[in-house]
Amino acid sequence: MSQLKVVLVGLGTRGRHWARVIAENPRARLIAGVDPSADSVSILREKLPMLDFPVLTFNEALALQPDLVVLSTPPSVHLEQITACAERGLPVLCEKPLALDFDTARACVEVAEKAGVLLGIGMNFRYLETTRAAREIIQGGRLGQVGFGRINYWRYRDGKRPLLNKYPLTMEQPMLLEQSIHHLDLARFIYGVEVKKLWARTTNPPWSMYRSDATVAAWLLFENRFELQYFGTWMGTNSKNEFQWRTDGSAGMLFQRDIFRGLEYWKAGAAEPEEIELAPQEDFVDDTRGLFDDFLKAVRGEPSTYPSGRDHLKTMVLTLGCAESSRQERMIDLLEYGRQLGMES
Ligand SMILES: NC(=O)C1=CN([C@@H]2O[C@H](COP(=O)(O)OP(=O)(O)OC[C@H]3O[C@@H](n4cnc5c(N)ncnc54)[C@H](OP(=O)(O)O)[C@@H]3O)[C@@H](O)[C@H]2O)C=CC1
Ligand SMILES: O=C1CO[C@H](CO)[C@@H](O)[C@@H]1O
Known about the structure:
By secondary structure, this protein is α/β, with parallel strands linked by helices. It has two domains: 4-124 and 287-308, NAD(P)-binding Rossmann-like Domain (Rossmann fold, 3-Layer(aba) Sandwich), CATH 3.40.50.720; 126-281 and 315-338, Dihydrodipicolinate Reductase, domain 2. The protein is built from ten helices and 15 strands. It has a nine-stranded mixed beta sheet with strand order 14-13-12-11-7-10-9-8-15. Helix 4 (78-87) packs parallel to helix 5, helix 5 packs antiparallel against helix 9 (309-328) and helix 7 (174-191) crosses helix 9 (309-328). The chain starts with a strand and ends with a helix. It binds NADPH dihydro-nicotinamide-adenine-dinucleotide phosphate (NDP) and 1,5-anhydro-D-fructose. 1,5-anhydro-D-fructose binds at residues 157, 165, 168, 178-179, 182. Residues 132-254 form the GFO/IDH/MocA-like oxidoreductase domain. Residues 4-122 form the Gfo/Idh/MocA-like oxidoreductase N-terminal domain.
């Protein structure tokens, strides 16, 4: 089977996952990487010595006529890079968040659509075993009518740690746009329903190393009257990290103990849970493999459910809606907020 030629742009922390995922995929060939940072390139060479691909400038790499481009660069440069790829008719798989504001994110989607190129988004958490199983259980009706739920994400993220991206230290809404965006996207994906209204508050604890808000609390009201409470922070006081996601319905309850593993189903009234069997996955790698495989299918014209740029705009409205609700100190109607941003329903 012929391999699709891939250029990887951005060889930092996330780019190192991508380099492995692309290079190890039998349906793809990593023909070049792009990154102006000598540090990022030398760390990649040191950590992944078995990967032997040239590092070129962006224009040199695109001149090799790849079949697709993976963008693992900071959000501030995505529009410029997607535009350059679209001009050459190249499909793009771009890391989240697509952009830091809605207008720029929409411009990314429109430039790709106008050029008729595919644009996929790095929503790799949709490809976790936990996500797939939870979605099947909930949408398959094993919880009956879902009523309420809660996501709790408690983390001490040392943003100054070597080998971790540094721009979140100074960006606006780092927790919301870098991290909560995954959780909010997962809620849309797992429940299969959109949020109608939300109330949120974003704050920054006095001890925070982040310039802008590192904590997000939200109350999400879905179209089917399901309600989800969300709490996420990067500034827990110590390294005791926590993740729990619980959903209660008329026929049962689902409890996830960790982002990457650990899912229990409790039938209504049961004294013991049923442990859901999940295949082992390497964190951030196997889920990214799932996403990449799915996007390759789309590029080849095969059936695919990859997270598209157009779909990501809905997750962006939800994510930015949390910041807006906090700013206005009131509950907001998401459809109305989306319309204000220029989102077509
Ligand atoms: N889906 C997921 O699970 C994850 C997604 N991410 C996302 O991936 C993206 C990258 O994050 P991450 O790898 O952590 O960030 P890093 O800062 O670690 O790496 C980004 C790299 O891109 C380089 N870069 C900057 N501008 C350009 C450019 N114009 N062309 C080519 N390279 C450029 C940077 O160089 P320099 O340092 O000189 O700026 C750096 O080497 C972000 O959007 C982030 O949110 C991150 C982690 C996990
Ligand atoms: O900096 C980060 C960017 O986003 C990742 C998830 O996509 C985080 O896990 C990470 O801490």
